[in-house]
# Entry
Amino acid sequence: MQRKWFQYWFNSPYYHILYSQRNDAEAEFLIDNLSFYLKPAQDSRILDIACGRGRHAIYLNKKGYDVTGIDLSEQSIKYAKQFEQKHLHFFVHDMRKLSFINYFDISLNLFTSFGYFDTEKDHVNALKSFRKGLKEDGTLVIDYFNTIKILRNLTQREVKTVDGIEFQLNKFVSEGKIIKHINFEHRSKDYAFEERVQAFELSDFERMFEKSGLKIVQTFGNYSLQEYDENKSDRLILVCKKA
# Structure
């Protein structure tokens, strides 16, 4: 089976270099606000879906929760595993094939870690998998970018220099996806990666949730958990329950 863009790019050390400015303070700010809003019991089990190197999961665990982080990237999980302890575990896993049933109080899918697949069926399968892993009264939180605002303000070309590497970023929209081409040279070698994320809007999520047995109970538009405004909000944060 052909490997997908996310299997190459998220496993690359250059992914972490390009996005090294994603700081822990922002992650902790979101987790603090979500914790205050959701008020999980102290013995809650929390799943971090597409956890990357584990910054959200590690912080949740510091707050006293039992946390499991899963990600498809072997490199990210290898890095995260150094932080494992009794109530914090990381696994390489595909979000479409979760093996947990009625297990988690809260499942989180943060920082636009969704929308990577080619078909809606794959996305619905992932959502069904998220739902299956939740306890009956469990909560799913999906944090996505606000597609409407992004499309309106799409910067087509950008150059970013990080750690002496000049990343050429080209963004465009094609076949309902927001695509970013990432080209750079390092140690006399040329590299080319891409990101392809579905341009899902609120109505798309509503449709997919209906197909997967979930319902939206609350939407937020930023990490301060202010209300969602499709024209102004940076994020589309969806709080869901089993339908």
About this structure: Residues 24-38 form the longest helix (15 residues). The radius of gyration is 18 Å. The chain has a mean pLDDT of 96.
